[in-house]
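Listing S7. Sequence submitted for prediction.
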Amino acid sequence: GVIDTNHKSMGEENDCAVRAISEAYDITYKEAHVILESWGRVDNEGIYWKYIESGIRKDFPSSASELFIIKRYITAFSFVNQIAESGYTYIVLADRHIFVIEEVSHEKWLVKGNLDDAPKQIIGYLKIN
Protein backbone atom coordinates (compact mmCIF):
# COMPACT_ATOMS: atom_id res chain seq x y z
CA GLY A 1 0.00 0.00 0.00
CA VAL A 2 0.85 3.66 -0.21
CA ILE A 3 0.54 6.28 2.52
CA ASP A 4 0.31 9.87 1.26
CA THR A 5 2.44 11.98 3.60
CA ASN A 6 1.59 15.31 1.92
CA HIS A 7 -0.82 16.13 4.75
CA LYS A 8 2.26 16.71 6.94
CA SER A 9 3.69 19.44 4.73
CA MET A 10 2.09 22.46 6.40
CA GLY A 11 1.60 23.97 2.93
CA GLU A 12 5.25 23.70 1.94
CA GLU A 13 6.47 22.71 -1.53
CA ASN A 14 9.40 20.45 -2.44
CA ASP A 15 9.49 18.87 1.01
CA CYS A 16 9.79 15.17 0.19
CA ALA A 17 13.08 14.99 2.13
CA VAL A 18 11.46 16.49 5.23
CA ARG A 19 8.59 14.02 5.03
CA ALA A 20 10.96 11.09 4.39
CA ILE A 21 13.19 11.88 7.38
CA SER A 22 10.08 12.36 9.53
CA GLU A 23 8.77 8.93 8.50
CA ALA A 24 12.09 7.06 8.57
CA TYR A 25 13.06 8.27 12.03
CA ASP A 26 9.55 8.53 13.49
CA ILE A 27 9.86 12.21 14.36
CA THR A 28 7.47 15.09 13.73
CA TYR A 29 7.48 17.07 10.51
CA LYS A 30 8.60 20.16 12.46
CA GLU A 31 11.53 18.28 14.00
CA ALA A 32 12.55 16.95 10.59
CA HIS A 33 12.19 20.44 9.10
CA VAL A 34 14.60 21.92 11.67
CA ILE A 35 17.07 19.09 11.09
CA LEU A 36 17.00 19.56 7.32
CA GLU A 37 17.51 23.32 7.72
CA SER A 38 20.71 22.47 9.59
CA TRP A 39 21.70 20.34 6.57
CA GLY A 40 21.26 23.32 4.24
CA ARG A 41 17.67 22.97 3.05
CA VAL A 42 15.85 26.23 2.30
CA ASP A 43 12.06 26.49 2.80
CA ASN A 44 10.06 25.38 -0.26
CA GLU A 45 13.15 24.03 -2.00
CA GLY A 46 14.56 20.58 -2.43
CA ILE A 47 17.94 19.48 -1.09
CA TYR A 48 20.72 17.57 -2.79
CA TRP A 49 21.08 13.92 -1.87
CA LYS A 50 24.72 14.41 -0.76
CA TYR A 51 23.53 16.80 1.98
CA ILE A 52 20.86 14.37 3.11
CA GLU A 53 23.35 11.53 3.28
CA SER A 54 25.97 13.55 5.19
CA GLY A 55 23.27 14.94 7.50
CA ILE A 56 22.06 11.46 8.35
CA ARG A 57 25.65 10.46 9.18
CA LYS A 58 25.95 13.53 11.46
CA ASP A 59 22.56 13.48 13.21
CA PHE A 60 21.70 9.78 13.11
CA PRO A 61 25.14 8.14 13.34
CA SER A 62 25.33 4.42 12.67
CA SER A 63 21.62 4.25 11.80
CA ALA A 64 22.03 4.00 8.03
CA SER A 65 23.91 1.82 5.58
CA GLU A 66 25.99 3.19 2.78
CA LEU A 67 24.04 4.31 -0.29
CA PHE A 68 23.21 1.35 -2.50
CA ILE A 69 22.84 2.20 -6.18
CA ILE A 70 20.44 0.06 -8.22
CA LYS A 71 21.57 -0.47 -11.78
CA ARG A 72 18.37 -1.95 -13.14
CA TYR A 73 14.78 -0.78 -13.38
CA ILE A 74 12.97 -1.50 -10.13
CA THR A 75 9.79 -0.16 -8.54
CA ALA A 76 8.61 -0.33 -4.92
CA PHE A 77 6.82 -3.65 -5.44
CA SER A 78 9.93 -5.29 -6.89
CA PHE A 79 12.10 -3.62 -4.25
CA VAL A 80 10.04 -5.20 -1.46
CA ASN A 81 10.08 -8.62 -3.15
CA GLN A 82 13.75 -8.64 -4.18
CA ILE A 83 15.72 -6.37 -1.82
CA ALA A 84 13.89 -5.34 1.35
CA GLU A 85 14.77 -7.16 4.55
CA SER A 86 12.46 -7.50 7.50
CA GLY A 87 13.36 -5.24 10.41
CA TYR A 88 14.62 -2.33 8.29
CA THR A 89 13.17 0.89 6.92
CA TYR A 90 14.42 2.24 3.60
CA ILE A 91 14.96 5.81 2.47
CA VAL A 92 14.58 5.46 -1.26
CA LEU A 93 16.09 7.71 -3.93
CA ALA A 94 14.19 8.29 -7.18
CA ASP A 95 14.75 10.96 -9.83
CA ARG A 96 14.83 14.26 -7.86
CA HIS A 97 12.67 12.70 -5.16
CA ILE A 98 12.92 10.56 -2.04
CA PHE A 99 10.39 8.52 -0.12
CA VAL A 100 10.27 5.73 2.44
CA ILE A 101 9.51 2.03 2.20
CA GLU A 102 8.74 0.61 5.63
CA GLU A 103 7.63 -2.69 7.07
CA VAL A 104 4.62 -2.02 9.29
CA SER A 105 3.98 -5.63 10.35
CA HIS A 106 5.38 -9.03 9.39
CA GLU A 107 5.80 -8.93 5.60
CA LYS A 108 3.42 -5.95 5.21
CA TRP A 109 5.24 -3.05 3.59
CA LEU A 110 4.11 0.51 2.90
CA VAL A 111 5.38 3.21 0.60
CA LYS A 112 5.29 6.51 2.49
CA GLY A 113 5.49 9.61 0.32
CA ASN A 114 3.39 10.70 -2.63
CA LEU A 115 0.45 8.67 -3.92
CA ASP A 116 2.29 8.10 -7.21
CA ASP A 117 5.58 6.85 -5.69
CA ALA A 118 4.97 3.09 -5.96
CA PRO A 119 5.62 2.87 -9.74
CA LYS A 120 8.59 5.28 -9.75
CA GLN A 121 12.00 3.92 -10.67
CA ILE A 122 14.17 3.51 -7.59
CA ILE A 123 17.80 4.37 -8.27
CA GLY A 124 19.26 4.01 -4.79
CA TYR A 125 18.50 3.53 -1.13
CA LEU A 126 19.75 3.73 2.43
CA LYS A 127 18.86 0.92 4.80
CA ILE A 128 17.86 2.34 8.21
CA ASN A 129 17.96 0.29 11.40
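Caption to Listing S7: primary sequence and predicted C-alpha coordinates for the chain studied. The chain is about 30% helix and 25% strand. The first strand starts at residue 2 and ends at 4.
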